[in-house]
Amino acid sequence: MNSQYLKTARRVIEIEEAALHRLRASLNNSFNQAVKLLLESSGRIIVSGMGKSGHIGRKIAATLASTGTPAHFVHPAEASHGDLGMMAQGDVALVLSNSGETQELADLISYTRRFNIPMIGVASNARSTLLRQSDVAIVLPHANEACGTGIVPTSSTVMTLALGDALAIALMEHRSFTPEHFRKFHPGGKLGSRLTRVGDLMHVGDHVPLVNAATPMAEALIEISRKSFGVVGVHDKNQHLLGIITDGDLRRHMNGLLDQTAGDVMTPDPATISPDALAEQALAIMTQRKITCLFVRDQSERQTGSSTILGLLHIHDCLRIGLG
Question: 77-86 long-range contacts, Cβ below 8 Å, gap at least 24?
Fold first, then answer.
């Protein structure tokens, strides 16, 4: 029986895979026109659909919004009871319906025609009401539904979802959407944490443990204790980083420690990182070197021998946002 389940699963995936191949082959200038219409929009992309098409539409709207194209989903039934007010001139409607004859879409379609809101229709019937009324019509190719009876939306929804992804990525690439843009739309969760930069997490100003190279170690120990990072940076009179004092340095200089200066005890030229580097990169450096802190400085300055201290990043800062 277990082998039968696997056989069914593989059959479903093969049928849906074949549908995607049909969709790829069927794409034509209508897709180009749809992208052009979306790029020209001065407002938002209003995505709508009923039933399974509505579920797919919500995902498409979310993908568009997270990749630089303002979009939201409007339920067609709710649209008939006031939510048509969410649409305005300057917007573009992206309406999904496998049959193209979904009754609940009638008011929304009429509204776009009345107020000259451009509409992109996606359906499997080229002669359907939806596609005949659309400014740009994208026809989904005929494909067998994976259920075998033709009544459960499977291959058709997969094609619609893939088409939405294709539109979103085409728009994203045209706008040169970067990981930095993506991070702004995804500040939370694993994706957001992986794209967080050091400069967003680092401690700055009086929170950074620092002493001059000539500082007696008694005062350096007080600074280490006061700032609670377990380290202290050592700088020259121009605030350029010379070295770092860690627990290991204290142990190595235990004999006569209080008779020495910070410059005597420090480890010179410590590992540092740029504020523009990803926090994930900083965590990798700290893990590899088995250290807990990185001083932050402009790496371009370092090449000239001048490296002003900008801040300090602790490994706990990275772990706090979900890295590691």
Answer: 77/50, 77/104, 79/48, 79/107, 79/108, 79/111, 80/104, 80/107, 80/108, 84/108, 84/111, 86/46
Q: Model confidence over 210-267: pLDDT tens digits?
A: 999 999 999 999 999 999 899 999 999 888 899 999 999 999 999 999 999 999 999 9
CA dist 285 and 273 (Å) reads 9
For 92, the enclosing helix (H) or strand (E) is strand 92-96
User: What are the CA-CA distances from residue 118 to residues 36, 302, 320 (Å)?
Assistant: 12, 54, 46
Radius of gyration of the chain measured on its C-alpha atoms: 30
Q: Report the alpha-carbon distance of residue 313 to residue 70 in Å, rounded.
A: 34
Q: What is the mean pLDDT of residues 278-290?
A: 90
- In three-state form (DSSP H/G/I as H, E/B as E, the rest C), the secondary structure along 166-230 is HHHHHHHHHCCCCHHHHHHHCCCHHHHHHCCEHHHHCECHHHCCEEECCCEHHHHHHHHHHHCCC
- What pLDDT does residue 91 have? 95
**Phi, psi at residue 24, to the nearest 5°?**
-60, -45
> Rounded to 5 degrees, what angle do the CA atoms 141, 142, 144 make?
135
Note the pLDDT of residue 85: 87
Separation in Å, CA 206 to CA 127, 211, 241 = 70, 12, 16
Can you give the pTM of this predicted structure?
Answer: 0.63
Of 254, 259, 299, the residue nearest 276 (C-alpha): 299
Say how many C-beta atoms besides its own lie within 10 A of residue 263's C-beta: 19
